[in-house]
Structure formats: structure tokens, C-alpha cells
Design a protein that fits this description.
The complex is a heterodimer of chains A (260) and B (186). Chain A has 260 residues and is an alpha+beta fold. Chain A contains 5 helices and 9 strands. Chain B contains no helices and 15 strands. Chain B has 2 domains: 2-49, OB fold (Dihydrolipoamide Acetyltransferase, E2P) (Beta Barrel), CATH 2.40.50; 63-176, Nucleic acid-binding proteins (OB fold (Dihydrolipoamide Acetyltransferase, E2P), Beta Barrel), CATH 2.40.50.140. Classes of the chains: A alpha+beta (260), B mainly beta (186).
Amino acid sequence: MQSAFDRRRINGPEDSYHPVFANEIHESSSHVHRIRENRKISDIRPIFLQPGLISQANGSAYIETESMKIACSVYGPRQSKNTAYNEKGRLNVEVKFAPYSCELRRSPLRDAEDRSIAVAIQQALLSSVQLEHFPKSTIDIFLVIIEADGIEGCIASGSIAASTALADAGIDMYGLVTSCATAVKGTDLWIDPTQEESNTANGTLILSCMPALGIVTNVWQSGRIAPSEILACIDACNDRCTDIHSVVAQALLDSAPNKI
Amino acid sequence: MASDLVIPGQPIPLPRGPVPQLGRGIYEKDSQVRASLVGVPRFEGSSLVISRVRPQPPTSNSVVLGSITRLSPLQALLSIMVVDGIPLPPGEEFTGVIRSQDVRATEKDKVKIGDCFRGGDVVRGLVISLGDARSYFITTARNDLGVIFATSEAGATMEPVSWQEMRCPKTGKVEKRKCAKPEGLL
């Protein structure tokens, strides 16, 4: 415990709690099958995507889907240090939660959760990047989660932002990666669940794919989902990914004249 | 021209006839030609490319500029700062090594590294191979390759007097370097 303490930072109190308001308790007890207020269960949250916001980085993207906000920057290709000779490049993904991103304060030290999100995003992107063009080099992708709304949203939005940032950086890719999450609640499929919705779900599934090529790059499932439901989830996610692809394409085309 | 912009994964319509050579930013998969970069595909000679000015890692046959960081009797270490005329961002330099047998084309066994380079010299070189895990192998064995900028012991910028000597304009002292032939000289 002592070694995990970072003495260079102003550390907050050992534990702090979000004040609990009366109406919140009322809400959380009844949300199991509550209908979404402003969208259907088959709809995704509206996406705001802006490539090229971080000027120091080779490429960057900012994505916002309601209360899910991620900034992503891409550096490199730079020379791999302390690694053996490798004909192909390496893709290094690091995810960081801002201390104020969640309901409970996040410690600035890395923990297991950001690492598992980083692995999921790296898996989603790995087969889309033409790494054979970058021998002995490393491409670094850094994601800062400014506001989080569920791990599923972090992985899905993070993958989209990272793929957009890679395209913005001019890294050769086979195609753009888009990603979508689904939560299974009873017999319903809830697309793009929020934190609260996925907490009450039987299981969740995240599909990452390249819609332009019709290739699935990663499927990430947690919880209990029957095989038939998985297939339904994949179909639903695939449709949404195609929609998201057009958003990403439009964002890249709009920002392209500044780059070329 | 915005309508001609393509994004990664987008199929590129090709003119009738033989498939052109595919250059940077374009790949073929399942006999469909697709883009791998955001940009406008255009012909450069006979090959179709999407060009994008972006720092590239060195490959064999790229011309690099770098400064000498370390000397040893067998080799000189070089910090590559410019690849094919495109500068790398600060802090993202690649390391190259000039082995004594790669300094010049003739009398390779008589090369003394200390008589060819000094720390801080800016050198133009050619990448001969990706080298080992740590560094790229660079050669200066060509007339137009070698030291292009060096300061003397007195601190002045030296001028080349022959292919293996440079003179300090302040003290008139001659120092030994493997000089690159200046451009535009007969």
C-alpha cells in the first residue's frame, strides 16, 4: 500500500464520497427496466468527433457522446527502445482516467481497469494498422478519459477516437475501426449502454469492426449472454458500426483540407 | 477537389486498362485497390500514390541528416534528425551508426574514425540497412555524402577545402573530416 502512494502529488483524503441525494436513491431503485428518456433502446448516443485538436501530437481526436468524453493523441512512429529487433511496428496504447472522470475520485496512478481498457482498444486496432510499414518503430496512442460513463462506452468510444487519431496522424491503415457496445437486459438489447444501464444488465458485448472491409477486429463479452443473443448483439452492433463509420468518415473529410 | 478525397479502406476507382503500380498510401486486398491514408490519390509517373508529408522512419536508401553523438575506433553514432528532407519532431530521433568500413568507398581498412568525424558534426548519409535492434546502418561512401557542417576547435564554422579536409576561417587551421561534396560544384 505504501509503495502505491505518490508523494509528489497533493493526495486527497483517503476516501471521499459523493453526496447521496434523496432523489438519486429513488431513481436507482427503479431503473432496472426503466425506459430511456430521450432515445430508444436501439439508438446510440449522438457522437461529436473532432480530429486534430491536440497540436503537439502527430494526430489526435476528441470524442464526446453525451457524458462520455475522451481525448486521444497519437505520437510516432518513433524508434522502439529496449526491445528486440522487430520487422513489424509495435502499437502501444495507454489509457488514463482523469481524477474527476468518475463518480468516485480516481487516483492518478494506473490501476488494473485502465490497463484492461487499453488492451481491449489495442486489440480492436491492431489488425487495422499496416504495421509492416513501420519496422523497428513504435506508435504510441494515449487516451485521456475526461468523463466516463461505463467501461463499455470507454472501450467503444476510445477505439473510435484512437482510429480517427491514427488516420489524422497519417498512419497507414487497412480501414477505419468503429466500435459499438450492447447490453442484454432480460430479452431486450440495449445499444450503447450507460454506466447505470450496464450495471443492471445480464451481460454486455462490445464489437469492433472495419465496416469498409466487413472485417470484425475484436469482440469483447462479459456477463451471461446466450449464444442466440450474442448473434443478435453482433448483428445490432454491426449495423450501428456502419452508422458510426459515416460519422468518422465525415469528421475526417471535414478536417482533411487543413492537413493536406 | 474535396469530392476526390478518400479515407482508409475506401475502394479507389481505377481507369480502364492495366492496373497501375501502387505506391504509398494504397494497398490491394482481394483484388480490390483501396486507400490506406486520408488524401487524394494521384499519379506520380506510372504509380498511383496518396502523398502525405509526415515524418517517416528511415528505410534502406533514404538520405538522412544527423549529428554525431559518439565516436569509437570502430564506429560513429549518429542521431538522425531529418529523413528524406522531412525533419523528425524533437525528441523522436532515430539512432544510426556509421561503421569504419562504411565511411568511404576506397582504402576502407585505413579509415580512422577520429580523422573523419567529430562530435557535433552534421552528416549527410545513406541508410544501407535497418541494422540491429538499436541502430540503423548508415554509409557516407559517396562523393555527396559526409560532413556538411562542422565547427572548429576555435568554435567557428569550418569550410571544406578538399574531400578530407576542412579549414577554420578564424585560425586558418586545417582539420580532418570526410566532407560531402557541396551541391552545384563541378
